Amino acid sequence: MTPNPLAAQRDGLHLSFSRWVCRICPGRMLSGGIILRMKAQADNATPLYGRYLIRLVRPFPDFDFPFIRQVRRRAVELLRLEQGDRVLDAGCGPGGSFPYLVRAVGPSGQVTGVELSPEIIQNARRRIEKNGWRNVNAVEGSAQDVRLSGVFDGLLMCAAPDVYASKEALDNMWPHLRDGARVVVFGAKISNKGIGRVLNPMLRLLLSRLSFPTTPKPDEEPWRLLSPRVDRIEIEEYLFGCMFLASGSAIGSRAKIREELVPAG
Q: Which helix (H) or strand (E) holds 115?
């Protein structure tokens, strides 16, 4: 059989890469199967749209969908941030809310974004670099276990149901919010309005294709876990009730919240 020079070159590159990984990971032998599993894990941390759309728009760091810009602006207004404040953008995605947050806290404030996907956070960091923001930091990690430091004056969760519908994520972030910190959530919901009911099946299908496998399915009150943690939650609905903005002021400590959420006896 005649040797295939392309296959030989490919195998040689694969072997070289494996040896390089073994040098930086002493004592670990990585086979091709393990390398493939590593890639699969990275893909699992990135929803479908992130693997394609995010790569497509990467050369354009400031890209954002026009229809969502107005919602981001309104969400930041509801945070009521002041110059010098610190704000946490949990599930920040490619950093679409960063421009509005930076403007709100000013050069003396700080914006911290948290994003699970290694693919998507690349875009967020490119946005930061392109705009020269020295007071913005994008942290790769899960909101459920990311290590935060200091106290934040506001918390934004924009199109991040894996964050605002996760008790573990809220428990992890809440001790870092000052009492009275503003909390704002934007996301999708099931509508109980006329035209909205017609759009519900399309919404479910769209989210199932674009979200993580673990993403909670939308219901009529996605802010349910947030309600006991804020004072007088306010809801604004968009797109015939299929989208919402929820806002309120953080109350209580972690221990107090648990007492309220878990009945005695």
A: strand 110-115
- Quote the CA–CA distance of 70 and 91 in Å, as a whole number: 18
Provide the token pair at 172.
Answer: 């992890």
Query: Which pLDDT tens digit goes with each residue over 61-70?
Result: 999 988 899 9
- Which residues contact residue 99 at a Cβ distance below 8 angstroms, ignoring those fewer than 6 apart? 62, 131
We report the CATH number of the domain holding residue 86 as 3.40.50.150
Structural domain of 212: 66-261
Query: For residue 148, what pLDDT is reported?
Result: 96
Domain count, the chain: 1
Which helix or strand (DSSP H or E) is residue 56 part of? Answer: helix 48-57
- Residue 4 backbone zone (phi > 0: left; psi -120 to 50: alpha; other: beta): beta
The token pair that represents 138 in the structure block: 């994008």
- Whether 193 is in a domain gets the answer yes
